[in-house]
Amino acid sequence: MKSIAPRALAAVAALALAALACTTVNDFFDFELPDPEGLATDAFGTFPPPNTGTPPAPPTSASSTDEVATEAPDGTPAATITGLAPAGDLPFTLDQADDAQAALRPEFAADAERFPAASRYVIDVAVTFNEDGSATLTGREAIRYTNQQDFALDELYLMLWPNERSQYLGSAELGQVTVGGQPVEPELGDNGLHARLPLAEPLAPGASIDLEAAFSADAQRGLEDGARYGLSNGALFAPTFYPLIPRIVEGEWQVEYPLGGGDTTNSDSAFYAWRITAPADLVIAASGVVVDQANAGDTQTQTLLTGPMRDLALVVGPFTVDSRTAGGVQVNAYLLADHADLSGDVLNMAGTQVETLQELVGPYPFAELDVVDAPGAFGGIEYPGLVFIGVIDHDGFYEEATVHEVGHQWFYSLIGDDQLLQPWLDEAAASYTELLYYERVVGPEVVPQVLDNSWGYLSYADDPTLPVGGDVAGYGDDYAPIVYGKGALFFDALRRELGDETFFAFLHNYYDRYVYGFATSEGFQQVAEETCACDLDPLFNLWVFEGGPVERQE
Fold first, then answer.
1. pLDDT over threshold 70, residue 4
2. If residue 353 lies in a helix (H) or strand (E), which one and from where to where?
3. Residues 6+ apart with CB under 8 A from 296
4. For 467, which DSSP code?
């Protein structure tokens, strides 16, 4: 997810038309936060630059021989199936990949046993920084995939996200692949964005199969100009760098090229056991908890485990590290040297939001949360257990970005949703968590001002009557004002309709129903109606499904 950070609503007029992935709508506030909290005052930020990525070409596919390349939308090689062969031992067996207790807070260790059919990933990756300023990731993975559909599967897919050209500054190659112990020739499609793996025999419902793949990816400089994958300030930012199994939605693999500037990836919660080798003089930040580490000469190796997480993010760079505990969670701040003196503020902002949402929504079960200084990563981008903040600076323009991205740990990471087809479920919710944060830190007197800014943001929509429940591509320039601005206002309208006691009971019930799973707009309404024992069709039709003019409520 990305976050948008406007300096003030005047900035929205110039920049609100940018197509944005997960963007925090940061509003201008003129109140001061209490000094004892150690938080920045008058926090506001800047929008990311417009998405200027070249539209993708029509889908293509290719069968591999020893080396088969496809062409990216900009005409450069996007992906290759090479003779790259797996080598060496993986850090775990697939039977150990769900040994996730170390990655979970002790009181949630049993969550590792709740999902026997979740995919298991074991990944070994080495990071090299090259003389030309690029970086290379070379690795191998093993995956155990269980068919959770009610029909047999005759194919699997792997997503190669570094080949997405609008937000990823790099490319990926897929090496040798085996499925069920037998070599498979992947068929690349959509300019190398995905690889189809035909199965020799249909995979029956409830059956499992193991696959292995070698892979490599490169990353280029330029993240500071607006991207989610690449290099900036001597650091590598590499989310979803590895071949990732997508979701099946309404009976079809979700492998389409993401359009509209929103978030890119959708994947089911899985267990990861992975090992990273990187230069010893740099700092590693990664999803999960380190269970082993060692140095050998000029390299370091970290081995990590995760709880049920949707995907991974990896960062390697010249960071300072500071930590604090908030609500039983270790919050880590990875900041570049120029921003090291801001670690206390960042930790207080993130920690306060962790405490707020644990109280108002549900527990954060993972042992750690990493907040990473990522200049140029839009306003910010969320990943499970790790968030990028793209606007950290000494002007204090990063508070809403930090709060918004931490909010996504509940809405996207824990309570999943389809970020392509129903993005409001995480973006509107994360935007509303900004209000919950300020309501806690400043007091209820700030709520009208926060809502005023959401109304002002909505005013920049070409069609403010649009419903918030649409897909990313359908909104065009109205995506951010509707999904973020109007979406946050819908949460306020729902809270007014239900009253505080029932509204917060609903948030807890919604969390309990969908934690680690995938929510839908219809499921969201169902839980709300079950909680209030009332009919909410008129409210949801007006705001979420059909649209129409909405009015301020005093």
1. no
2. helix 343-360
3. none
4. -
